[in-house]
Amino acid sequence: MKPIGTLTWLPDGQSQPAYEELTVLSHAMNVDRDHPQACGGHAECGTCRIRIVSGDVSPVFPDERLLMEDFPESFRPGERLACQVRPRGDVVVQVPPDGLPDLRD
Ligand code: FES
C-alpha cells in the first residue's frame, strides 16, 4: 500500500499515513489507538462514529446508509462510521469526547 496523505485525529492531534484501502477504524488499530467499536466493524453499533472535519473521504455505502436511516437523530452533520469510511487524501477526524452509546441497545 502507498500512503495517499495524512490522517489526523482530534482532539489529540495524533497523525499517521492515510491509505485509501483501509477504513479509519483500521487505521486506528494499526497504531494501537483505542478507538471505540462494539460490533467488529459491521456498521451495526454506531459506537465508532467520528466527525469528518476536513478532507475527502469515501462515499456512504449501503450498510452505513442503513444505520443512518434507522437512527437519523443519532448522526450529527459530518458524522460517519469509522469502520466504513476510508480516506481519499489528507483527512482530519474528530472523536466524540465521551464515547457514544451502542445504537442496538
Ligand atoms: S464498529 Fe460498530 S458501527 Fe462501526
What features would you highlight for this structure?
alpha+beta, Ubiquitin-like (UB roll), 15% helix, 105 residues, 5-stranded mixed β-sheet
Please characterize this protein's 3D structure.
This protein is of the alpha+beta class and 105 residues long. The chain has a single domain, classed as Ubiquitin-like (UB roll) (Roll), CATH 3.10.20. Helix content is 15%, strand content 22%. The protein has 2 helices and 5 strands, in the order E-E-H-E-H-E-E. It has helices spanning 24-30, 62-70; strands at 5-10, 15-18, 49-54, 79-81, 91-94. Strand 1 and strand 2 form a beta hairpin. The longest helix is centred in the middle third of the chain and has 9 residues, at 62-70. The mean pLDDT is 96. Bound molecules: FE2/S2 (inorganic) cluster (FES). The site of FE2/S2 (inorganic) cluster (FES) has 12 residues, from loops. FE2/S2 (inorganic) cluster binds next to loops.
- CATH class descriptor: Alpha Beta
Specify Rg, calculated over alpha carbons: 13 Å
- Ions, cofactors and other bound molecules: FE2/S2 (inorganic) cluster
What global shape is seen?
A: globular
Helix content: 10-25%
Range of strand content: 15-25%
Strand order in the largest sheet: 2-1-5-3-4
Q: Number of helical runs?
A: 2
Q: What's the mean pLDDT score?
A: 96
Biggest sheet layout: 5 strands, mixed
The stretches of 5 or more residues where confidence is low (pLDDT under 50) are none
Q: Secondary-structure element sequence? A: EEHEHEE
Number of beta strands: 5
Q: Could you name the CATH topology?
A: Ubiquitin-like (UB roll)
| N- and C-termini, Cα separation | 37 Å
**CATH H-level name... which superfamily?**
Beta-grasp domain
Which structural class is indicated by helix and strand composition? alpha+beta
